[in-house]
């Protein structure tokens, strides 16, 4: 079965077609991959003001179905402010600020964030997680986080099986949707709390850190 190609994941790219394709085409036209230097420009200077690594949690403090239930109107918050409301997303919010991309995600526009919970980050070796939080490894952290951001607003209902996102040279993020339960996974992480609307996009809570797969063997 032919897999549909989605727009690459990078918040500062210019999108020439809608995320799910231009009219008359079953496969989107991929944007050129943004280089790390361009991403760093979006994120700010690579030098951080402090050399102290932030404290990171790998423990969830509330059940998935309890997340954001205490918020009357999530649309009054931008995506980063919304992420900060849930204690389950404290590590993601902290890393976004450490990487310098938080300001971009508080700006006007429409974005999609697939936000890993604190516990999701526990699948990553603790030493690697702590390394990513250090200022000198900011470029590597940006590469990890940009896999979780789309420059368009995408509801979970628009995800379908056999889609993929180009995430670099011969690297893709695969999307799978169960035909019966409609449970969706992206890059190996399952969406546990979908479609939390913010003033500038939508946030999906996921239970893992998104990873890519090589394009070898994928039908184009």
Kindly describe this structure.
This protein is α+β, with helices and mostly antiparallel strands and 220 residues long. Helices cover 19% and strands 20% of the residues. The chain has helices at residues 36-43, 79-85, 90-99, 126-132, 138-146, and strands at residues 4-6, 111-116, 149-150, 163-168, 171-177, 184-186, 189-198, 201-206, 213-214. Strands 1, 2, 3, 4, 5, 6, 7, 8 and 9 form a 9-stranded mixed β-sheet that branches. Strand 7 (189-198) and strand 8 form a beta hairpin. Helix 2 runs antiparallel to helix 3 (90-99) and helix 3 crosses helix 5. The protein is globular. Residues 6-51 have low confidence and may be disordered.
Tags for this entry?
20% strand, alpha+beta, 9 strands, 9-stranded mixed beta sheet, 5 helices, 220 residues
Task: Please give the structural blueprint.
Layout: E1 4-6, H1 36-43, H2 79-85, H3 90-99, E2 111-116, H4 126-132, H5 138-146, E3 149-150, E4 163-168, E5 171-177, E6 184-186, E7 189-198, E8 201-206, E9 213-214
Parallel strand pairs: 1-4, 2-8
Antiparallel strand pairs: 2-3, 4-5, 5-6, 5-9, 6-7, 7-8
Helix pairs in contact: 2-3, 3-5
Keywords: Signal
Organism: Pontibacter aydingkolensis
Protein name: Fasciclin domain-containing protein
């Amino acid at each position: 079965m032919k897999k549909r190609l989605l727009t690459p994941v990078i918040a500062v790219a210019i999108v020439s077609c809608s995320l799910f394709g231009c009219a008359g085409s079953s496969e989107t036209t991929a944007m050129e991959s943004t280089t790390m230097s361009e991403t760093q420009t979006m994120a700010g200077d690579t030098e951080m003001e402090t050399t102290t690594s932030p404290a990171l949690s790998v423990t969830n403090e509330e059940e998935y179905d309890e997340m954001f239930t205490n918020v009357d109107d999530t649309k009054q918050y931008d995506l980063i402010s919304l992420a900060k409301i849930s204690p389950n997303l404290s590590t993601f919010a902290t890393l976004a600020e450490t990487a310098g991309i938080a300001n971009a995600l508080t700006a006007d526009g429409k974005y999609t964030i697939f936000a890993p919970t604190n516990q999701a980050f526990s699948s990553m070796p603790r030493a690697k997680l702590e390394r990513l939080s250090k200022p000198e490894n900011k470029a590597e952290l940006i590469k990890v986080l940009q896999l979780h951001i789309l420059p368009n607003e995408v509801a979970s209902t628009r995800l379908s099986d056999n889609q993929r996102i180009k995430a670099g040279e011969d690297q893709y993020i695969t999307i799978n949707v169960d035909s019966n339960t409609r449970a969706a996974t992206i890059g190996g992480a399952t969406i546990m709390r979908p479609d939390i609307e913010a003033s500038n996009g939508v946030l999906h809570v996921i239970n893992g850190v998104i990873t890519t797969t090589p394009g070898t063997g994928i039908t184009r």
